[in-house]
Amino acid sequence: MNKTITIDQIKAAAEEAYQLYRNNTAGKNADYIPYLANIDKNLFGISICLLDGRTIEFGDTQYKFGIESVSKVHTAILVIRQSGTDELLNKIGADATGLPFNSIFAILLEKDHPSTPLVNAGAITACSMIQPVGDADKKWEAIVSNITELCGSAPQLIDELYQSESATNFNNRSISWLLKNYNRMYDDPDKSLDLYTRQCSLGITAQQLAICGATIANKGLNPVSKLQVFDAGASSKITSLIATVGFYEHTGDWLYTSGIPAKTGVGGGVMGTLPGLFGIAAFAPPIDDAGNSVKAQLAIKYIMNKLELSVF
Ligand code: DON
Predict the structure, then answer these.
(1) Which ranges does the record mark as transmembrane (predicted)?
(2) Which of 48, 94, 103, 256 is 20 to 30 A removed from 250 (C-alpha atoms)?
(3) Mean pLDDT by 10 residues, the chain (312 residues)
């Protein structure tokens, strides 16, 4: 992206967005996972990380919330790091489903692959592919260490969220075994689902996600830690996955109105990546019908439009 833009312009736009939406009460906390229903609905934070490592912060950017589906990006990156971009395409795919994140119908429609690592089915397959296959403890270490490298600091398991989600994830259990039925599980289905559930239950801050977005925007080089986390050539693949399905059935509307590839989670986080410019994350628990944070969407859209930026 060639557009010249100053940190002061970005800061001003982010502050305006923060003030404009901080009292917005639209949306409702996710309640199909009991822990999420009880999170303070007024929490709100916006964090931006520039590619020189400077960060811009407004609001609750240090609050550790459930990373949920944003973690699907991290684990897709880990599959690419361990097995390469072709293997991800062949075993999972890079297509939009046009359907909700937890759709079983999407699996039935595309029996030969789970479409994308950024919906539940593809993310559970991705967990099954993580190496070393057969060793859940080592796989978990690899998942956490990959997130740590991408975000520049470690995430922390929210045990209460993990217990809450494990006790209620019946739909995901069906997905896992349906994938097994179609030969799209590469490790034990229950253990792969458990890894997925645990990664979704990691606590992360908006600041950490902004740094991860910036690492993707910076061709795999974490701008804060200066670590080359993944091969530069993979960054366009990762960004294309996010652009294609980051907002599930609303991804087209999102890209059309915001101009930035971004990934959401029902914990209220949204992580965006603008190649060559910055990573951005916003967090606010109340979500819309598709499971996407209302305030985080409004804030990021406002900033993108105010700065007249678009990935296109
Ligand atoms: O599998 C689930 O239902 C949750 N762990 C994650 C869903 C999610 O975050 C959807 N995204 N907005």
Answers:
(1) none
(2) 48
(3) 84 98 96 94 98 98 98 98 97 93 89 86 97 98 98 98 96 96 96 98 98 98 98 98 96 97 98 98 96 97 98 94
Q: What is the helix (H) or strand (E) element at residue 283, kind and residue range?
A: strand 278-283
Residues with CB under 6 A from ligand 1: 68-69, 101-102, 120, 165, 172, 200, 264-266, 291-292
- Residue 109 tokens read as 């429609």
Beta-sheet strands, E only, within 190-298: 202-204, 262-264, 269-274, 278-283
| Nearest of 283, 263, 298 to residue 71 by alpha carbon | 263
Give nearest CA residue, ligand 1 atom 4. Answer: 68
Q: Tell how far the Cα of 265 is from the centroid of ligand 1, in angstroms.
A: 6
pLDDT for the residue numbered 163: 97
Q: How far is the CA of 101 from the centre of ligand 1 (A)?
A: 7
Residue list, annotated binding site: 69, 120, 165, 172, 196, 248, 266
Please, what are the domains in the chain?
7-65+205-306 (3.40.710.10), 69-200 (3.40.710.10)
What is this structure's pTM? 0.97
Between the CA of 121 and the centroid of ligand 1 the distance, in Å, is 11
Cβ neighbour number for residue 3 with a 10 Å cutoff? 11
pLDDT of residue 1: 56
Single-letter amino acid, residue 192: S
